[in-house]
Amino acid sequence: MPFLSARWGVSTVTQFDKRNLSMMMDFYEMTMSYGYFHQQDGDVRVAFDLFFRSVPDKGGYAVFAGLEHVIEFVENLSFSDEDIDYFRAQNLFSEEFLTFLRGFRFRGDIYAVPEGTIIYPDEPLMTIVAPIIDAQLIETAVLAQINHQSLIATKASRIVRAAEGRRVSDFGARRAHNMDAATYGARAAYIGGVDMTATVSAGQQFGIPISGTMAHSWVMFFADEFIAFKNYAEIYPQATVLLVDTYDVIHSGIPNAIRTAHEVLEPQGHRLVGVRIDSGDLAYLSKRIRTMLDEAGLTDCKIILSNSLDEFTISSLLLQGASVDSFGVGERLITAKSDPVFGAVYKLVAVEKNGVFAPRIKMSENVEKLTNPGLKDLYRIYDGHGKAVADMIALGGETIDLGKPFRYVDPIKPWKNRFFEGFSALNLRRLYMRAGKRVEKMPSLHEIRAYVQKQLAEEIWPEEQRFENPHRHYLDMTPTYYELKMGLLDDMRGRHC
Q1: Would you say 233 and 265 are in contact if contact means Cβ atoms under 8 Å apart?
Q2: Structure confidence by residue, pLDDT tens digits, 202-242
Q3: Residue 334, strand partner residues
Q4: Are strands 418-420 and 474-477 parallel, antiparallel or unpaired?
Q5: How confident is the model at residue 8 (pLDDT cuts 50, 70, 90)?
Q6: Angle between the 179-192 and 445-454 helix axes, to the nearest 10 degrees?
């Protein structure tokens, strides 16, 4: 139960109390919503697009994650009596509006690309079509889910690619930005290709395989390193992985690990599963360790490396010939340390009047902040071998027929006359909610992960997946859509510039 602070006289919710995540919003969402309600515009239907402007780490692609929790959030969005009392205490809102909030449920539609889709900048990844209040109230929560999980899934995908088929485990919980970030970050990392996590809450909640052995404190607790290893091996003979860098890897850790293998495990019919090093020159040490283990007849013993790893350090280790079977990756994964902001935004693109959605566009002093207006579809264009050659924005409901040469516009070079010929097109987006009700079955976490892997292996060019100077994935437009955008820009310039 919440406790009452005698000093402040307010109810304080602890982290163990049930939280109403509906209150996860920026306050301007409330002030604007009340403004629409007060002006009797609250039922006007609008469309908001969610998109991002640049790939983290100057990469060639990103991974879309977090959709399941957006749908879950919207389905359960409601306000309790305690929430209403809190809003009442701000002395800004009428009782009529507070009564409206007390019975509020989301009434809109949600279109989105499937979770796990490989995505690129400026594409409409989600579109919320709903009464203006409904669409406004969910903005922050939607962005928080998509920004965080897409960021971590993208980072994980890069790290897994760098590992070149070796297992990767998430070790990041203790360096995550909070406990929710650790749990949902582990989910996103699994989507991106990580094999397992050390975060128990994520394993329990999402069915992700969990792993973990010992920390340095286990070794330090005992008076002797061999005794520490011996005790652990006797408890977990079938899964003994020893941390060998507490004192001296070469002169103590590995000799004691070998001794444990021969004197404790082998008499029981077991083998030493692995050793882990978490400090020092990992490339040099791993090669020395491999030689020592092999000479001791432990050729099947795995070597696990950890210690501030990311895709760049892993690539460097492998370039140096490091002898490694798997990686434990922590802070640089769970925080996406090298580029920790995904940058998805949520922008109004259309307002309904007399049953027709009129497009809206945001102009800016910065060209990269110019938005793509109106209701639209997003197509992925494939060549005859199933490779994705480009994406294309079309007017919502526009017919796309690639059975004959199809003219398209490259918005960066609109003067060029270009055609898709011999290609196929797939509308990436699906309707997930209609009038506040879920209408599309959500895939399992394992299916989402497999979907990511399939795209990267079969559809996405290797040139887009390299870390340095990746090939740019083209985002084209149909001529009809391009003309709509340019016409709206001309109109806005005439009015406001």
Answers
A1: yes
A2: 999 999 999 999 999 999 999 999 999 999 999 999 999 99
A3: none
A4: unpaired
A5: very low
A6: 50
Q: What is the pLDDT of residues 24-46, one digit of tens each?
A: 999 999 999 999 999 999 999 99
The C-alpha R_g of the chain, in whole angstroms, comes to: 27
The pLDDT assigned to 456 comes to 98
CA count, 13 A, side-chain hemisphere, 376: 33
Domains of the chain: 21-152+340-370+431-460 (3.20.140.10), 213-323 (3.20.20.70)
* Surface-to-core class of residue 459, CB atoms within 10 Å of its CB (0-12 exposed, 13-18 middle, 19+ buried): middle
- Beta carbons of 328 and 306 less than 8 angstroms apart: yes
In sequence order, the β-bridge partners of residue 304 are 276, 326
Which residues neighbour 274 within 8 Å (Cβ) at sequence distance 6 or greater?
Answer: 241, 242, 301, 302, 303, 304, 325, 326
* pLDDT at residue 277, rounded to an integer: 98
Calpha distance 495→484 (Å, rounded): 17
Amino acid at 89: A
Question: Closest by alpha carbon to 311, among 54, 57, 55, 52?
Answer: 57
pLDDT reading at 173 higher than 80? yes
- Helix (H) or strand (E) run with residue 432 in it: strand 430-434
User: At 213, which helix (H) or strand (E)?
Assistant: none
What's the whole-model pTM score? 0.95
Contacts of 482 (CB under 8 A, 6+ apart): 409, 411, 414
What DSSP assignment string belongs to 309-349?
Answer: --HHHHHHHHHTT---SEEEE-HHHHT-TTS----EEEEEE
Contact 421, 408 (CB under 8 A): no
Burial category of 163 from C-beta neighbours within 10 Å (exposed 0-12, middle 13-18, buried 19 and up): buried
Asked if residue 50 lies in contact with residue 345, where contact means CB atoms within 8 angstroms, the answer is: yes
H helix or E strand, kind and range, residue 425: strand 424-427
- What is the spatial distance between Cα 239 and Cα 236, in angstroms, rounded to a whole number? 5
Q: What is the 3-state secondary structure (H, E, C) of 247-258?
A: CCHHHHHHHHHH
Q: Which of 228, 234, 168 is nearest to 197 (CA)?
A: 168
Classify 30 as helix, strand or coil. helix
Structure tokens of 312?
Answer: 């760049």
DSSP letter assigned to residue 19: P
Q: What percent of the chain has pLDDT over 90?
A: 93
Say how far apart CA 293 and CA 254 lie, in whole Å: 8
Backbone phi, then psi, for 255, in 5-degree steps? -55, -40
pLDDT at 3 over 50: no
